[in-house]
Automatic annotation (TrEMBL):
Its main location: plastid. This is 4-hydroxy-tetrahydrodipicolinate reductase. Residues 61-183 form the Dihydrodipicolinate reductase N-terminal domain. It comes from Asparagus officinalis (Garden asparagus). GO terms for biological process: diaminopimelate biosynthetic process; lysine biosynthetic process via diaminopimelate. It catalyses: (S)-2,3,4,5-tetrahydrodipicolinate + NAD(+) + H2O = (2S,4S)-4-hydroxy-2,3,4,5-tetrahydrodipicolinate + NADH + H(+); (S)-2,3,4,5-tetrahydrodipicolinate + NADP(+) + H2O = (2S,4S)-4-hydroxy-2,3,4,5-tetrahydrodipicolinate + NADPH + H(+). NCBIfam families: dapB_plant. Residues 187-327 form the Dihydrodipicolinate reductase C-terminal domain. The lineage of its organism: Eukaryota, Viridiplantae, Streptophyta, Embryophyta, Tracheophyta. Pathway: Amino-acid biosynthesis; L-lysine biosynthesis via DAP pathway; (S)-tetrahydrodipicolinate from L-aspartate: step 4/4.
Length: 333
């Protein structure tokens, strides 16, 4: 199983050298030299290492909805590798009589009209079931309502939908859930650091301008939830920025030539850059985090599912969690 590592460094880069860096075409070119503070985080996946929870008592039934998609399938594969009991059933709006193959298992695909009956039956047979959702943005709220109606704990990895309604639905139903727009553990740690900075130093970047660019595979329809969360922190730090100003890159040619995405990862990546500049244009800050592939999210999702299963078994008072809660708990694989 792949493990992920985060390299975080701060460097002072002369403006004359900035043009050779990824995302450089996004920043404005100035005639006079100056220095910028650049903070970069790059996710490096080490595929030589493996881990498993099979030897522990953490094995439990897990159902991954959205297995027909690449992210859902990656999570299903990670669940099998972790020794969890993957239920060979998934929901998809792409109805098909052809099963999916995850490891040695054949996953049967059920259409939306069958969801309630199938899930109720599975939950009756497996009362310690945890569901993971990686479906589509427009299915978030309907799926959450279904999980809450049946009472099954779930991890919502799908971004989009009406998030306020999502939280209200889960709260009213008193169901256990992990809800997070970002499942990559190292990226979540970065987000947590941003939130701490925003809380402790409100207004620290007052007057600064902000530019944001995020690049994802062309199949990602919505704006990155991670980008929105980081921007929210900058807004608390005093930056004026509207979410509509986010520059979305979905064109593969631009991703190759302008963003610097490796060609083999055009179908699965997440490159983010946040560029801040002082009112007099003498100081710049850049925060950048780049992810190639889906392993970092799949691994984090399995940690979230294990975390949630423990909370259900211990009958914890708190019911709704996010990935920061998972990180704080520790003991991740």
């Amino acid at each position: 199983m792949a493990s992920s590592s985060l390299s975080l460094h701060t460097t002072f880069i002369p403006q004359s050298n900035l043009r050779s860096a990824p995302f450089s075409s996004f920043t404005k070119s100035r005639s006079r030299p100056r220095s910028i503070v650049r903070i970069c985080a790059t996710m490096n996946l080490d595929r030589s290492k493996s881990s498993s929870v099979a030897a522990s008592n953490l094995s439990f039934p897990i159902m991954v909805n959205g297995c027909a998609g690449k992210m859902g399938k990656a999570v299903a594969e990670a669940a099998v590798s972790a020794g969890l009991n993957l239920i060979p059933v998934t929901f998809s709006n792409l109805e098909s009589n052809n099963p999916l193959h995850v490891g040695s298992k054949e996953i049967q695909i059920h259409g939306l009209s069958e969801r309630e009956g199938v899930l109720s039956s599975i939950f009756d047979e497996h009362p310690n079931l945890v569901v993971v959702d990686y479906t589509a943005p427009d299915a978030v709220n309907d799926n959450a309502e279904l999980y809450c109606k049946i009472g099954v704990p779930f991890v919502m990895g799908t971004t989009g939908g009406d998030r306020q309604m999502l939280y209200k639905t889960v709260q009213d139903a008193n169901v256990y859930a992990v809800i997070s727009p970002q499942m990559g553990k190292q990226v979540v740690a970065f987000l947590a650091a941003m939130e701490i900075m925003a809380e402790q130093f409100p207004g620290a970047f007052s007057g600064y301008s902000l530019q944001v660019m995020e690049s994802h595979q062309a199949s990602k329809l919505d704006t990155s939830g991670t980008a929105k969360a980081v921007i929210s922190c900058f807004q608390k730090l005093g930056v004026s920025f509207d979410m509509s100003q986010i520059k979305l890159i979905r064109d593969p040619k631009q991703q190759l030539e302008m963003v610097g995405v490796p060609e083999e990862h055009l179908s699965g990546h997440a490159f983010h850059m946040y560029h801040l500049e002082s009112p007099d244009e003498t100081v710049s800050f850049e925060f950048q985090h780049n992810v190639c592939g889906r392993s970092i999210y799949a691994e984090g999702t399995i940690d979230a599912a294990i975390f949630l299963s423990k909370k259900v078994q211990s009958k914890a008072d708190k019911k709704i969690y996010d990935m920061i809660d998972v990180l704080r708990e520790g003991n991740m694989r």
